[in-house]
Amino acid sequence: MVLMDVDGTLTDGTLAVLPNGEEVKLYNVRDGMGVMLAQLAGLKLGIITGKNSRGLEKRAERLKITELHQGVIDKKLVFDDILKRYQLKPEEVAYIGDDLGDLEVMKSVGLAAAVGDAHRLIKKHAHHVCKKDGGRGAFREFIEFIIGAQKKWDVIMSGFKNILNRKL
Ligand SMILES: [Mg+2]
């Protein structure tokens, strides 16, 4: 299973605040493709974020990520609950983040990644530091790193062709 932070990880950390107070975030299409590749590889995905966003709800829905946790103060509590529900050991889970709120979960998982422009402590505790920055393809890079390590490219490419064929 791969868990992810949102602000600064799936985004570059920028928030646009509209006059009505609603916040708008920009996501990267390449990371969206990373989600699809991960799902083709049979990886389960989950989002744990401190903020609340209706836009994220829509994005998660489109990307078929059902394990969406928003407004989380203690990410480790949510992480422990996910382990219990999916009957996973911590070492079977990967996590990607960028800032101090991610540290406790990163210390617990089997594979922790930091985006390229993460806080220095986050980089220090990561097994993998992405070359790409948050919101600039870091998530995609991490997924491709896992797919390569698990030697799943063949499975994915045949699954990918099937999807394309269906769409034509
Ligand atoms: Mg963050």
Question: Please, could you describe this protein's structure?
Answer:
There is one protein chain. A 6-stranded parallel beta sheet has the order 5-4-1-6-7-8, with helices on both faces. A two-stranded antiparallel sheet has the order 2-3. It has helices spanning 29-40, 54-62, 75-86, 103-108, 120-124, 138-149, 153-167, and strands spanning 2-4, 16-17, 23-24, 45-48, 67-69, 94-97, 111-114, 128-129. A hairpin with a 5-residue loop joins strand 2 and strand 3. The longest helix is centred in the C-terminal third of the chain and has 15 residues, at 153-167. It has a single domain (2-163), classed as HAD superfamily/HAD-like (Rossmann fold, 3-Layer(aba) Sandwich), CATH 3.40.50. Helix content is 42%, strand content 14%. The chain contains 7 helices and 8 strands, in the order βββαβαβαβαβαβαα. The model has no long low-confidence stretch (mean pLDDT 95). The radius of gyration is 16 Å and the shape is globular. By secondary structure, the protein is α/β, with parallel strands linked by helices. It binds magnesium ion.
